[in-house]
## 1
Amino acid sequence: MATTSRASLSLLRRSPPKLPNSKFFSSSQFRPSTFRKSYPCPIWSSSFSFCLPPRSTSTSSLSFRHFSSSPPSMSSAVAASAVDSAVSDESLSSNPLLQDFDFPPFDSVDAKHVRPGIRALLQQLEAELEELEKSVEPSWPKLVEPLEKLVDRLVVVWGTISHLKAVKDTPELRAAIEDVQPEKVKFQLRLGQSKPFHKAFKAIRESADWSSLSEARQRLVEAQLKEAVLTGIALDDEKREEFNKIEQELEKLSHKFSENVLDATKKFEKLITDKKEIEGLPPSALGLFAQAAVSKGHENATAESGPWIITLDAPSYLPVMQHAKNRALREEVYRAYLSRASSGDLDNTAIIDQILKLRLDKAKLLGYQNYAEVSMAVKMATTEKVAELLEKLRSASWDPAVQDMEDLKKYAKSQGAEEADSLTHWDTTFWSERLRESKYDYNEEELRPYFSLPKVMDGLFSLAKTLFGVDVEPADGLAPVWNNDVKFYRVKDSSGNPIAYFYFDPYSRPSEKRGGAWMDEVVSRSRVMARNGTSVRLPVAHMVCNQTPPVGDKPSLMTFREVETVFHEFGHALQHMLTKQDEGLVAGIRNVEWDAVELPSQFMENWCYHRDTLMSIAKHYQTGETLPEEVYKKLLAARTFRAGSFSLRQLKFASIDLELHTTYIPGGPESIYDVDQRISVKTQVVPPLPEDRFLCSFSHIFAGGYAAGYYSYKWAEVLSADAFSAFEDAGLDDIKAVKETGERFRNTVLALGGGKAPLKVFVEFRGREPSPEPLLRHNGLLAASASA
């Protein structure tokens, strides 16, 4: 995720009126939220993070034409300013970042364009900012609208190069971004600490017209006032200078952390020439390993005879942990994965310590006791409510997780495994897969032929039509793309009018693309940014996954987990694309409190277990045969398999994140690894290895937006499970009721964006405040919770 400072996109929001309290989701805990650019997904299993975060046209009726990073004359105006004597007018006028484009020119932007393009843009924006400060008035046309236009240009252009760094990384692009990043952060801070803007927003808040403003506009204003304080506007000059230095250094460290994880992941390659070493691995994995070998110069490599190359990239790593009978190989690969970015030039240990120290220094400058308080200031929750929820879920998960391990040991012993009495980290995934196969009589690898990417996408789009009344159609060729595998889609309403667009980049490319899966915005829906006589600019998103690529002449054949991941990211995209907010700064995913933003994504995952939905996507790629009914029933029964263990894993991540940002003292008697070991006593049935260095690749909290916020996955999971239970209550087999409930979900959760507080949105959809019971029920943990 691009680690943008609050100041850059202080996208204006407010706390709502109070609602009746519930135990965890008290409306009094609402805070204005910080908008971040992308939303990575949670770590699903003990062996693999599916969703590690990355970093920070013509159409019918002309309903969407341009979303420009600049007005048409911008490039010539910038050139005329002679921002850099080394850069000619001609080179600036041809710089794709400075052109007036319909869609970002992903296919033509190169590292050489970054330095001159960003510097030219920043100089132009700086000049416009100064002029705006001189003329600003406390009104929408004289403050908010010009501010949105100014911010939008930086969002689009910087978002373009940040996205390319995440999906098409090169040393040259890295270096160019690193060079201009301090200048970008400086401008963001300058914008966020603007006293004329702050004074104007305060005047709006205190005006007689305040009560006549829409709820969306009120949230926007109050959030901006809060963000300004969190960006250091109230600090004296000396402290503000210190604050700004901290922000610059944090941005730099975050990028370095992320780059080290990517480089460490790419660095590991294990060449195997003896097929006995990889016994047990399915043909799909062998084909992928052989394909990797071909890409590394082993031209004659085949799935049958090798050689094979194993990497730490997700589609390679996970099959080894699940299926390799060679225990020594599993241990080697596990240890390599566990120790990524923890040694040599790529060691993130010192970077973590410095990040934590700077975050604490920043919190104290702002008058908070710790960084978690800063984080919670812009979320639904408080540290106390989070700790209460995490402990409730931990108590419900512990005994089932202990039983999970006992079941594994018993099964391994029944199979004559020598390690049965001493199962450890590189054994649990392998034996879990064997126990799953034995208990439910299906093999995940056997499901792959039923989940080809084209069929999955067709079924997903059909579901979107049923639930939300929208059509999704291919629009390849309409927008430039960064790789030939990238697909481009148009979303239409029931009248056939385009309402949104999105890119989809599905496959793993370990040499240039970061791991995980994420959704990001390209542009938001906006009335202010509308052009060519249209009433609103349409939203555009991209979805990025790292699933198994096609091998040979076969399409991408997906694991069920990869299917869930696509549904998850599409949920994020739907909230961005189906928003009905026309105020660009609170549209879609913008201004949604961080701990509520996972609601639509996790909600969509539930449909993977819905019979009609699953059967619509589960078609054999060769025969067209539908997944057998008995296999579906086994898949459904296996949904709660090891639910306690998976829940506990997530709770560990949330707990250590919270601990590092509350009580941990950087440079104190405990190291970060001591904290990890201490937290694991209550959150990990099998204690971590003494040399466990997982934190060195915990990108969510050190290079993403989840610092003191990883709990958000569980917080939002409560919301999403309860939201799906509304469809269960209506009757999942009652198509009329499903459509009616889907329309209500679209008109609330998906439509209202950050213009209304999440708890109010939820209550408007559900008719009551959320309950954790549906989540515990879905996970098979309700009985454990009742007895805890």
Note: Confidence is low (pLDDT under 50) at residues 1-86, 784-788.
## 2
Amino acid sequence: MDCYTANWNPLGDSAFYRKYELYSMDWDLKEELRDCLVAAAPYGGPIALLRNPWRKEKAASVRPVLDIYSASGMPLASLLEVLQNRVLDARIFHTEFGSGVAILTGAHRFTLSANVGDLKLRRMPEVPGLQSAPSCWTVLCQDRVAHILLAVGPDLYLLDHAACSAVTPPGLAPGVSSFLQMAVSFTYRHLALFTDTGYIWMGTASLKEKLCEFNCNIRAPPKQMVWCSRPRSKERAVVVAWERRLMVVGDAPESIQFVLDEDSYLVPELDGVRIFSRSTHEFLHEVPAASEEIFKIASMAPGALLLEAQKEYEKESQKADEYLREIQELGQLTQAVQQCIEAAGHEHQPDMQKSLLRAASFGKCFLDRFPPDSFVHMCQDLRVLNAVRDYHIGIPLTYSQYKQLTIQVLLDRLVLRRLYPLAIQICEYLRLPEVQGVSRILAHWACYKVQQKDVSDEDVARAINQKLGDTPGVSYSDIAARAYGCGRTELAIKLLEYEPRSGEQVPLLLKMKRSKLALSKAIESGDTDLVFTVLLHLKNELNRGDFFMTLRNQPMALSLYRQFCKHQELETLKDLYNQDDNHQELGSFHIRASYAAEERIEGRVAALQTAADAFYKAKNEFAAKATEDQMRLLRLQRRLEDELGGQFLDLSLHDTVTTLILGGHNKRAEQLARDFRIPDKRLWWLKLTALADLEDWEELEKFSKSKKSPIGYLPFVEICMKQHNKYEAKKYASRVGPEQKVKALLLVGDVAQAADVAIEHRNEAELSLVLSHCTGATDGATADKIQRARAQAQKK
């Protein structure tokens, strides 16, 4: 352990810092880092170098080259199209809304956007008297708002969207004439200021509280200054870099110093600082508490004892039992296992990870109820981390960064670098749900595959289908949309053939101007709403003739469009019928139009005449004759209104006859019946009902005697009883024929006579009917009479 802690450096009495190598860089740089504009992404992200941006001796036609490398120095991309504009400096900052950017322009004005994904630059207020670039500046994020802090000589200014205000750090050492460098912590909670007096002021980012101040005795402006502290740690330190010196300072009276052999660049991280040069890439951080407890010299922490016990166990030494007994006597075995698991997560070397995990596993064997989740998850996390830390991948995430970043973001980064096999292996190893894991990655792979223009459409479509199949969560329509965006329309159509959801196929086909194919797909789906969507699109896209011809080839679509036109576009419906020579439907259309649109009788008759002509063309003589009769009836109704007054128009033929009878115009009613060949039975029913409604019983009796009733006289009895007139009903009951006599007598309540008639007819059904009406004591004799008649009939 003494050898392991040799590179630990104490900062005061309570914190150790260590620096270890991540990679030996092999990026074959021809320039020094000082000759390049350098930027690097956090969370083990890539490095960007803009080569020779300031060299004036280069030809004006040669554009600067932007190279992007992984953290291990492997080339990822190279860009020539780099825009050069009047931007003097820029800062990327991170908030809960995303990554933002602040820009210092050549006019010494600041602009800011809170989200680079939706770049909307806001101009910040002017700084009084600012004629040149500030000596240093940074972005502070407070209360969800981004501010710019800048130094102009001995003064500090804080810019927000509304104003520029001067600020003064509390407790700043006197004699400051300039601020040379400033740095905000990774969490934007703390701020460090380097002054020309060689003092480093550290405090809260709100500039309301001073944490400490350190005199580094160096007045030369540093190249970089960044914070270096781990999450939830009380210790706070700042790393300052000059040409060949690196210094770690905090609230301790002394500092940690390192010699830099070559130009280096600092990348602040959540839990430390990455330091890379032309040859190496290192990580400097505060030693985590669990690691410090286990590895510090002469440590008696439970984790340290358990690690020694496991090593002695492998040597088959009795000391293993002694260490274990000591831990158990103190009741600290659970704590020892947890310490080893936690410390394993913070180790970069796999051998040390394994050693600590073996110790944790060894200690678990002597515990009855230690939950295995933490151990299992740590093993899984370390396997993932070791995979992405590999030199060929070059993502040197720490355990703390990985947990903050989340597995989904890490997978996104692997996908963006087209490391699909590794991303899929991680998903399968962690058993992530397919929609979140493998399916999503395969979809990204397919979207990349369609961009390979050197492969034929059929080969690409086949390869994608063979790889994806029916994988849940994969949308072929999204992949097809990407293919269409790349100018590969035929490939997009082939991919859509694999899309099982018509609702996803159709919109893209419409976008690709393949409307007729979209219509076929919509019809196959059976989704009428989808068909309507395509039809309306086609209507706007095609001329009227082509649109109608397209519909003729799709009967279902034509039927649906007709239904639509019946409610929304009647004239279009008429045009459809005309084009198809559908005279039957044209006739029906004009009949509906005669009632829906026209108010003048002449217009309605004209529309009906057009309908009749259409029906004759359709060889539907019945409909044609009926339409002509309606025309005659309309003319007659208008004449009746003119001559008699009242409302006749739009009444049916029967209602017209009834209205005439009710108005006392019996002659006209009979003439109308003769004109329209109303059968006698129907006319008698109409007149019977009308006279009964008028309660004109005298006229009704005259009418019944005018000639023999074609409907018999039982209807007279029924109508009179319906009007509650038993007296009149009895008049007609006597005239009812023998076959309906019993029913008529029962209707008027003459049960006894009904019984006599039923006995006379010797009809069992009539006898049963009469018996059903014998309900009171007065009908008892009648019932007995019927029963005797039945008995005599049975004897015979």
Note: The mean pLDDT is 85.
## 3
Amino acid sequence: MDLETGFRQNHLKVRWKQSWTTVLTLAYQSLGVVYGDLSTSPLYVFKSTFAEDIEHSETNEEIFGALSFIFWTLTLVPLLKYVFIVLKADDNGEGGTFALYSLLCRHARVSSLPNCQLADEELSSYINETPNLALTSFGSRLKSTLEKYRVLQRFLLVLALVGACMVIGDGVLTPALSVFSAVSGVELAISKEHHKYVEVPVACIILIALFALQHYGTHRVGHLFAPVIILWLFSISSIGLYNIIHWNPHIYKALSPVHMYTFLKKTQTGGWKSLGGILLCITGSEAMFADLGHFSHLSIQIAFTSFVYPSLILAYMGQAAYLSQHHVIENDYQIGFYISVPKKLRIPVLLIAILAAVVGSQAIITGTFSIIKQCSSLGCFPRVKIVHTSSKFHGQIYIPEINWILMTLCLAVTIGFRDTKRMGNASGLAVITVMLVTTCLMSLIIVLCWHQSVFLAIAFVACFGMIEALYFSASLVKFLEGAWVPIALSLVFMLVMYVWHYGTLKKYEFDVQNKVSVDWLLSLGPTLGIVRVRGIGLVHTELVSGIPAIFSHFVTNLPAFHQVLIFLCVKSVPVPHVRPEERFLVGRIGPPEYRVYRCIVRYGYRDVHKDVVEFEKDLVCSIAEFIKKQKDDTDGNRVDGRTGNDEEVMRVVGTSSTHDKIRMGGHGEADTDGSEEIKPVKKRVRFVVPESPEMDDGSRAELRELMEAREAGVAYILGHSYVKAKQGSSVVKRVVLNLGYELLRRNSRPSTDALTAPHASTLEVGMVYHV
């Protein structure tokens, strides 16, 4: 099944004009994918809040104040900010930090991608869907300022990367905190002296099993996620309602904001520090926006407002009602979740909690894989192996290297901390930092993308930014008590991202400065001054214009090349998805008898790259379609690729699934439609030239030669570059390029790993880049 086509059909079906059945089905499915982390927060919120900063007194002012803070935090941040405001800032249905950054890149020229073209702005997903409103005077000045100063563009990129690094850190901390908190229920069944020796090994075993099963994907057990979370939310809300009725029916009075003031007035500094524990009640809120691409606005809103939000409020009120009548704290864990569960239900609830923690951890792990894929697509993270675990469900990926790194770090946190207090401090800082990044980017979205008044953006930042800044300060003050972990992890990942991005930009700048002009190639004549052999030669390059230095280096040392030469550029564009019919930009370099083409393949940051068989089929079909339409003088499908050469006009050509005028079939078999799936064992594909009276003899001969070359085989010519700092460079630059970037390059995947180019057909040409 075509992963792109399957996703687009699903995405378009749920985008607008949805039936209520579809909406409710998506709302049901979102419970297991989106709300696992948020739903398990009652396991550790009160325990972290009352860890040591404040004490539970007979007056209940601390409990009532904490409950009031929890209620209003859940109401203002997840409900008001995310459900009703941030979800509207989607990038063609996609959400997350990079979706916001992508939107800003399209409304102001602040993109960090080096090979951007004006042709990319003609993509249907690139076009602004916001009503055509003029920018305000402040918005125009802000846009001009961002486009003028490079330092501001880098600051925006760093801000987006900080959010991405904190999401990765959350991928380490959340599984450890959720699973350890769920397993902590065994403390009530055994003695205090032994429960810590049981909790850590059990939590580690569950975590190892969780990460070891990642390569199977979630589609095999994904249908069980929603029932688990529904059962968990039903359990904690029912227990909460029981505790309210049985212990304190008047607990609803504690929801008054007055109790927040009383809480801070009495506890003062201790109460401020305890906000780092209350903050944990909104862990997982960002997932509502980050996982938007798999669902829809309405489905996520219905699931949260009708079920998740009231269930969580009842759960927290129930815990507070129980604690308001129990003031004797014999052990530090007596303030936790399980003590408020009736004794007969503790074992079943413990089992459900462990399952819910696993589901919540699975969601954040998958989200970490997704954010790293996006970073890699935008050239901000070393290339890694990406395995698609499902052919039916888009977005379910597995990255082996990252999986084992996350598992190692997660086990280290669990074994090193061995308590929810320090784990909660670490997780809280990671969560609130991502929310602050979202708030900052949203303020720019309001002005630049939604074309609203600057005062509305200021009001947004003042309302939500002040709340998050308060929680951020409470988390940051616990730096030595666990909050250093996400900062350390973020610094390491930021260093990796910066070094890789810097090295990639320097490499591209060298390619641009040392590229060979098209005139040089044309001056060689139709044979290019070399021997032309049968087959297709694919020269991979990052350039969208000109001839890469790697090609001149090759033909200088080996004066022979294939009869059909294609300069191939596979690039990412700042949109989540590129439609198949807009995937390829194809142009000709020189007259037709040269048989030299340029093909630019555009992918969004969430697009699925095809395997080599499907890619070769689409590539050859797109060039054949370009040859057929070369006599068409209309400009409807023609796009100026701004290549710098007047003769090099690029044309948008779809993949083989978007046209069927060129038929293909295996050797000795009946011809099949171009959209039919080709099995990997059938690498050779025979193209049939259509007998069209509109096609002249030259085009037909060019098509025939293309088919003969395809039958002879395709060779991949890859540049193997070694980036070195040139003489006279600073010590920092030499360390970054000669040591850091080179270390990452040697341990990263090849640039064409996404296409799985066969080794037997691959030729690497080495060059040293002195930058």
Note: Residues 130 and 450 are 7 Å apart (CA to CA).
## 4
Amino acid sequence: MTHEEHHAAKTLGIGKAIAVLTSGGDAQGMNAAVRAVVRVGIFTGARVFFVHEGYQGLVDGGDHIREATWESVSMMLQLGGTVIGSARCKDFREREGRLRAAHNLVKRGITNLCVIGGDGSLTGADTFRSEWSDLLSDLQKAGKITAEEATKSSYLNIVGLVGSIDNDFCGTDMTIGTDSALHRIIEIVDAITTTAQSHQRTFVLEVMGRHCGYLALVTSLSCGADWVFIPECPPDDDWEEHLCRRLSETRTRGSRLNIIIVAEGAIDKNGKPITSEDIKNLVVKRLGYDTRVTVLGHVQRGGTPSAFDRILGSRMGVEAVMALLEGTPDTPACVVSLSGNQAVRLPLMECVQVTKDVTKAMNDRKFDEAMKLRGRSFMNNWEVYKLLAHVRPPVTKAPGSTHTVAVMNVGAPAAGMNAAVRSTVRIGLIQGNRVLVVHDGFEGLAKGQIEEAGWSYVGGWTGQGGSKLGTKRTLPKKSFEQISANITKFNIQGLVIIGGFEAYTGGLELMEGRKQFDELCIPFVVIPATVSNNVPGSDFSVGADTALNTICTTCDRIKQSAAGTKRRVFIIETMGGYCGYLATMAGLAAGADAAYIFEEPFTIRDLQANVEHLVQKMKTTVKRGLVLRNEKCNENYTTDFIFNLYSEEGKGIFDSRKNVLGHMQQGGSPTPFDRNFATKMGAKAMNWMSGKIKESYRNGRIFANTPDSGCVLGMRKRALVFQPVTELKDQTDFEHRIPKEQWWLKLRPILKILAKYEIDLDTSEHAHLEHISRKRSGETSI
């Protein structure tokens, strides 16, 4: 997209009309998408219409199709479900119904349709598009529309957004609603865990997913379940014996509970359903355990959308409008989706076809093929689940094959650190290694606060916030001698460092120290874990998603309070050091009017413009404001300064309040994303470590002195990659403790457009049409 085209973004929609509808089962985050479609549509100069009650509203017309205004989507962001309603529609399946729908659109001059729903809804949209010209000629023959109207609406553009809690649509990494459904499930699993431990019970939890086991699979990874039943991968024929053996093994290892997760569509190898009642009866009959079944049902569809789903919905909504307005009669109907953290456009029917292929493969009992078609991220989840749940740790070790790896936390606490420690320890034990845990970071390594960890040492750690090992910001340099002595004393042959910016700088110091101390020549890997998300070499760090959700929940409550009192502006300070990730993403997710960050310098003129913007906003029906400020965005324009400025300038128009969120952002139980991400990072790090130790084995001892034996494991776009810490040096701004380039800065224009600022879409991301097959090959994603 050239510079001229960008300026055209503001005029791209002039003379065009877009209709937006939600169809099929509802999903949290649909409202965020609807809000973004409406606001970005209006921003480009287009008229935007709501279609109430899905396709039924399209067929019935009349009052069901109403023009939307900027204010009509206010306060929608934090609501679950879909505000414009959704209905299953028989009429639209018949040509007669589609004829009426076409008539309703043509009469209003609408030639762009944005459909938010599952694969059924999107297939319906494609049929509608392919019949469009026939439908128009029929309407013209019947005298229902004029020749002029038919010419004006000669073709229909369609863009789909996938809203489905099952995450069952191929081509998209995450569908709108999946993350929120996981939040609901995990809240319940956490609650059930406490009561199960009190009574030593076994719980069988049934989650949604008729044809797709994604929710069940990620839940079992996030809560360390004993077993999961999913439709894509039926258990072996003797699964009853296997399951009972596993449950009793878990008990003998000292666990007081068992958790079994079942997807509602779970089947055995012959396609016979495996129900939660079947499993309960089996456990009671064979083992005599006190067993309870909980069927989660529609709880999973309800509640507030998570921060991830709000940002996903908003980003997809923006991209959908762009795709519609750039559409020509020759572009295929596309679906806007997310791959890694990039927005992509994929041909709608290709995605629908692959999704149908999965169902066919499962019906034909070709389960391996079904797994492959689900994509890499699904396969990776399954591999890690199998490793952590199915393998029994070896009892005897062959001499010389055992290596000693130490695990530690460095920096400030972040939710998900414990999940990373757990999977690192357990994967290490499964590989036959001896695993040590170090308390209190590098300081503990120097003081010898080190102990051996067994399998049950980390039991139940996945869902616990903070850092159980203890974590400190101390760097290793000044205690190299003691550290070297302990590496020798405990025979440490590899280090897994889980932490924030200090974990990375500590890694750099260890590399430097190798020149003086041979003992430091052991492989190490850094797993980024910090709420600030400021570790070079990774787009995400463990703990940032949890902090984001905490900020989001607080902002929702504050907005609610402001909506009650009217004419009130809240200034909220977030953490993050110099990194503006939390402020920006929370701004997007909570619908803030502005987010001040260090990476985008601002002047007094910008502050004045923001105040003026809020003064104008108070004249509308939306009489409240929300402004986020990153804690170190500017040393002179402090939170107090901004609060005083707003208070003075807003006199008589609005009053201001300030709120510093502080350390609550580091606490709390980790979100499903952080649990899953940390678990996979831990497993991947330990696999790398085993290989590196074998590679560095010389004359009976470990000697690792190459740059690639000290790495940061990070998520880059679509893949998990190991990057030597020394290579990341050039990409780091050490003074401000942030990476020089940060992917999320390109989301800032979206934040401003959705808050009604007149800006160019100059730096917004732009997705091109890709094909699914290409997306499947390549590196491993998470």
Note: The domain at 391-542+670-739 is CATH 3.40.50.450 (Rossmann fold).
